[in-house]
Structures are given as C-alpha cells and as structure tokens.
Amino acid sequence: MTGQVMAIGIIILALRLLTRDKKPAPQRIERRR
C-alpha cells in the first residue's frame, strides 16, 4: 500500500508543476498546504 501512496504523491507533484507553468500559483493550493 505504501507504493500506491508514493505513486499518488508523485502524480500530484507532477500535476502541480504543470498547473504552475500554465497559471500562476493559486492561493488555494498554498493555503491548503
């Protein structure tokens, strides 16, 4: 199960980088952190 969690985390990070390049860092994501 740990492998799945790590894979999900990597995917989320990749999506964050893609959204960052397309749009400016939204405040919602930063607040959620």
Molecular structure report:
- The chain has 33 residues and is an all-alpha fold.
- The chain is 82% helix and 0% strand.
- It is elongated, with a radius of gyration of 11 Å.
Summarize the structure.
82% of the residues lie in helices and 0% in strands. It contains two helices and no strands. The longest helix is centred in the middle third of the chain and has 21 residues, at 2-22.
SSE topology:
Elements: H1 2-22, H2 27-32
Shape: elongated
Broad structural category? mainly alpha
Percent helix, as a range, is over 70%
Q: Quote the beta fraction.
A: under 5%
Listing every helix as H and every strand as E from the N terminus to the C terminus, the arrangement reads HH
What is the CA-based Rg, rounded?
11 Å
List keywords for this structure.
33 residues; mainly alpha; 2 helices
